[in-house]
Amino acid sequence: MGMSKPRKRVIRGANYVIEDESRIPQVFEKIKELRHHEITVGIFGNEELVKKAAIHEYGAPKAGIPERSFLRAGTLKYKSAISKEIRDNIGDVVEGATSVQDLLEKIGSVAAEKVAMYFDKIKEPALLPVTIARRKDKSKKPLIDTKELRDAIKYEVKPKK
Predict the structure, then answer these.
(1) 43, 51, 37, 63: which is closest to 119 by C-alpha?
(2) Looking at the chain, which terminus has fewer C-beta neighbours within 10 angstroms, N or C?
(3) DSSP designation for 90
(4) 8 A C-beta contact, residue 112 and residue 41
(5) Closest CA to 40 of 120, 134, 115, 100
């Protein structure tokens, strides 16, 4: 999205001249561009992994699988860290040092990293003894049988519909 030129404003008085180049139109353009995009953190593409993630995210009571939210809970847990990333970098976008797309990518990357950190910390609800016995390494850690689900946590930046 192209930037318009700064609007030059001149104020003259009896003994002074003030020249001001307002960048407000550019700031509004950047805000508009930010508002027209969204960042989604999740599991994408592999249909089997998407189903597995949904089962663990929401639980499957009929199958005896309890809810172990990692996407919603992880995003909520690290909401302030993600917000801090936005606050720390929005000035660079306004100043023109960073593109809107680069900021969105950076936020998405941080958000996916934080969700993966949360995923690694999940301990409850505990696994059933039968599930532990089925595992090759006999690990008691929920959701980390093959690390395939954890490694599939990604982000996407897309225009809003």
Answers:
(1) 43
(2) C
(3) H
(4) yes
(5) 115
